[in-house]
Amino acid sequence: MNQEEEVELLSRVDIFEGLSKDEVREILEDLLQRNAEINLSAGEVFYTPQQPDGKLFILKKGRVRIYRTEGSREFTLEMVDAGTVFGEVAFTPHALRNAYAEATEPSILLAMDRADVERLVQLKPQVGIKIISLLSERLHYYETRMQDVTLKEVPARLASLILFLVESEGVKRPGEISIPTRYSHEHLGTMIGANREAVTRAFGRLQDEGVLQIRRRLIFVDDIEALQRAAGRLLEEESFS
User: Fold this and answer.
1) Residue 102's beta-bridge partner residues?
2) CA distance 119 to 196
3) Superfamily name and number for 3-149
């Protein structure tokens, strides 16, 4: 990949939207001078709670899973796609730092430490504003996910997750919305704090209610309003339904 392709790729990153190509080129050259680029293999864990210094990562290529562990169980907080900044939880209060990051496919990252971020914000204040906005959205999303696990049964948790997937990657066609990524039931289970069998039963219930269909291991949402109602059910409502 030549420099112009690198600049074009970095220009699509959320926090750099609105910057000129020359400004993005300047940021890229500055980061590469400090060996900030990281190449990862599929399955490679590159960030753990044990790391003493926080990092802000820019995902140039590939896909990353951010997750926490409780005993032997894993809870997936988020799947991050190329063009996204993540790792900002390392700059927040300690309770949100207990996360791991794993490349789920071959990936390329740019890593920025606190000094890099502070220098960038001083040079480009508009980037700092976008980082703050992104951080607020992420914190709200993580809090919502954790509340779902505490307050909702598995079908409602699954419906809530599918709503998020619809918003983040859904493909809309007349009469239905599809999720283009093939998620296994086990993988979805790590995202809602449930085992594979419970996810399978939850899918069965949502299909019986006419909310969605599974075809060729892909999720197709038939009734977005019914999905929203299912996602809003709390424990008490589930137990009496």
Assistant:
1) 45, 65
2) 45
3) Jelly Rolls (2.60.120.10)
